[in-house]
UniProtKB/TrEMBL annotation:
Keywords: Metal-binding, Zinc. It catalyses: L-ribulose 5-phosphate = D-xylulose 5-phosphate. InterPro entries: Aldolase_class_II_sugar_metab, Aldolase_II/adducin_N, Aldolase_II/adducin_N_sf. This is L-ribulose-5-phosphate 4-epimerase. It holds the Pfam family Aldolase_II. Belongs to the aldolase class II family. AraD/FucA subfamily. Residues 17-200 form the Class II aldolase/adducin N-terminal domain. The lineage of its organism: Bacteria, Bacillati, Actinomycetota, Actinomycetes, Micrococcales. Its EC number is 5.1.3.4.
Length: 241
């Protein structure tokens, strides 16, 4: 039996449903093969997050087999899904939530083009307006780190500190994205793959043309503060830059 109050229980149920549902977006946008990616979501109002179980087919993911963890990555025993092993990236997601309080969602994939940049250890330069809009500049590379402990999380947090980008390419591994909500982090995962592909193809065909810094700043400011609807969570919960 769980020991949370009714408000937290409602919030946990919402996040379970959202995180389970959002995994379908990873397959919809072709960001994963087999089970090579994961999404988590912070539970508002509690030191908890929800993450998927390890190695389970996306078709089988459901609110009741999502796994509830504390911010140290410990599974909350006695809750639905607790009998399953959590995602192998649980320690990474937990580290991000502990150290980036503004983050409400984390996504990891091995999407092809973004991972190809990661395999070269090369940042994606900001040469298209969509990158300026969404990421406010280049997409940085984080250090090579082995899965299983805090190393990847530390690399993500240190690389994103003082950076506008909500995506980091962990060297030799793949992209991790953060957002104000799980959906916001999924959007960044979709966008990072799109821009990784476009910039790769552009460079194959000829030299890249940089965008002046003032234009990048103006594009980012507009997209983050004017584009879309005012109710977007990414508008109301900004990352400090
Ligand atoms: O990157 C890796 C393994 O290298 C993992 O993120 C990926 O295989 C997904 O693992 P999980 O099914 O979430 O445990």
């Amino acid at each position: 039996m769980s020991t949370f109050g009714p408000q937290v229980e409602v919030a946990v149920a919402r996040v379970r449903a959202e995180v389970a549902r959002l995994h379908a977006e990873l397959t919809r946008y072709g960001l994963v093969v087999w089970t090579g990616g994961n999404i988590s979501g912070r539970v508002p109002g509690a030191d908890l997050f929800v993450i998927k179980p390890s190695g389970i087919s996306y078709d089988e993911l459901a609110p009741e087999n999502m796994i509830l963890c504390d911010l140290d990555g410990n599974v909350i025993e006695g809750t639905p899904g607790a009998a399953l092993s959590p995602s192998s990236d649980t320690a990474t997601h937990a580290y991000v939530y502990r150290n980036m309080p503004e983050v409400g969602g984390v996504v990891h994939t091995h999407s092809t083009y973004a991972t190809a940049w990661a395999a070269r250890g090369e940042a994606i330069p900001c040469v298209i307006t969509a990158m300026a809009d969404e990421f406010g500049g280049s997409i940085p590379v984080g250090p090579f780190a082995i899965i299983g402990d805090d190393s990847i999380g530390r690399g993500i947090v240190e690389t994103l500190a003082g950076h506008r980008s909500r995506a980091v390419l962990m060297q030799n591994h793949g992209p991790f994205t953060v957002g104000a909500s799980p959906k916001d982090a999924v959007k960044a995962a979709v966008m990072v793959e799109d821009v990784a592909r476009t910039v790769h193809l552009a460079r194959e065909a000829g030299p890249l043309v940089p965008i002046p810094q003032e234009a990048i700043d103006a594009l980012h400011e507009r997209y983050q503060n004017v584009y879309g609807q005012v109710t977007e969570p990414s508008r109301t919960a900004k990352r400090p830059t």
